[in-house]
Amino acid sequence: MKSIARIFHGIRQARSSRRNFLKSSAVAGAYLIGSRALASSSRSSVIVVGAGAFGGWTALHLLRKGAKVTLLDAWGPGNSRASSGGETRVIRATYGSGRIYTQMAARALQLWQENEQRWNVKLFSRSGVLWMTGSDDSYERAALPLMTEAGVRFEKLSAAECGKRWPQINFDGISWSVYEPDSGYLAARRGCEAVLNAFLKEGGEYRQAQITPGLTASNHIHGIKLGSGELLNADSYVFACGPWLGKVFSFLAPIVTPTRQEVFFFGTAAGDLRFNDAQLPVWGDDSKRELDGFPGKHWFYGIPGNHWRGFKIADDTRGAVIDPTTMEREISSEGLAAARAYLRFRFPSLGDAPLVESRVCQYENSTDQNFILDHHPEAENAWIVGGGSGHGFKHGPAFGEIVSDAVLGLKAPPVDFKLDRC
Ligand SMILES: Cc1cc2nc3c(=O)[nH]c(=O)nc-3n(C[C@H](O)[C@H](O)[C@H](O)COP(=O)(O)OP(=O)(O)OC[C@H]3O[C@@H](n4cnc5c(N)ncnc54)[C@H](O)[C@@H]3O)c2cc1C
Hints:
Blueprint: H1 4-24, E1 45-49, H2 53-64, E2 68-73, E3 88-91, H3 99-119, E4 124-125, E5 129-133, H4 138-149, E6 155-158, H5 159-165, E7 176-180, E8 184-187, H6 189-201, E9 205-208, E10 211-217, E11 220-226, E12 231-232, E13 236-239, H7 245-248, E14 257-266, E15 282-286, E16 289-291, E17 294-298, E18 300-303, E19 311-315, H8 333-346, E20 355-365, E21 372-376, E22 379-386, H9 396-407
Parallel strand pairs: 1-2, 1-13, 2-9, 5-15, 13-22
Antiparallel strand pairs: 3-8, 4-8, 5-7, 6-7, 10-11, 11-12, 14-19, 14-20, 15-18, 16-17, 18-19, 21-22
The chain binds flavin-adenine dinucleotide.
Flavin-adenine dinucleotide binds at residues 49-55, 72-75, 79, 82-84, 89-90, 210-211, 240-244, 248, 261, 263, 314, 361-364, 386, 388, 390-394.
């Protein structure tokens, strides 16, 4: 096995010749990878491994662009182990100086809405998103011009204005907030299932199977092996295996780290609608709060009650490194106590609310929390897609579009997602 450094030395050399090629190419807008370019009109075959937010949408876009696509997943789209599992995910465009994410969030929201209409399923709920900031507001200040540029509507609200609008929240320690009226939350596992249903209806093939990549030789992956021993072949392969990327390719183990994350759902008093999505937006608290008895600064966010489920709250702080296959998914008493301590402060009337549901999930963190979209360093027909890092779900439709363009040779992937930065 080559060292990671040698692998990336190789990839850098290959990229430098590709860059030179692109510079000398007079074909505006065309993205051709030497002789390997795939014309979108020819029916190129692609196998996508992983039917989560990233793989599912990638497969659907590839299909819609004319490719013959097989989608594979070990346990199914948005399964109980997958990072895309569970009930809901936030969609917001406040992203600090991350222009690419603000733009993708805006595009993704458009695609979620277009497709839910097409499928006649409700996946997006426009509850609004309230992003609260403390004394260090550099992230939020950087976000505002990029939101304007991306055409995302927002209001800048003082803590006093927020207090008037949402008296259920205690705004102590908050200097001001960004309110995105058109954002909200998405259905998570139901969203993945809807994408699979559309993919099947539009002519894609789906199989539930665990795979291992076939032999890598001559800068190509030669097929993928199913658990049954069957070998499947295609022109290109997309590995969108979420937190399992480091298991599928050992060189990715130090690059994509799965961390344990806990999610709590608290029950409101009977008939109390103040914490439901009709009266409260999705919220994020960037005041980096310290909690008595719980070390470090905390970054809580939440989704108001919906579909008669509880009020969701989670700490974005990264937990312990885990194995997504074997992890026991039981919450910790410390995690629950910290969530309660936070609730008591920020949502005082929920301080004694009972826990009605919980989940343990994992983030699949890249080294800098940015996404990954790049060739396998030793196989130009294979793509690595992942690194959602706790914020990937919303982007599924927009990121999948970018991935499909890259795989079909239609548009170069953004440099921000290259592997050799990790
Ligand atoms: C608690 C929590 C809260 C989050 N909150 C938000 C949020 O509010 N907003 C947001 O935008 N994002 C959020 N995220 C992040 C987001 O959910 C993830 O970044 C995103 O879902 C990752 O999707 P994925 O397709 O890369 O991975 P996954 O959904 O994990 O999909 C990977 C798939 O690959 C399959 N697979 C793996 N190995 C193999 C193999 N060898 N063979 C076959 N199949 C295989 C798995 O079964 C799995 O279905 C959150 C994540 C968590 C855990």
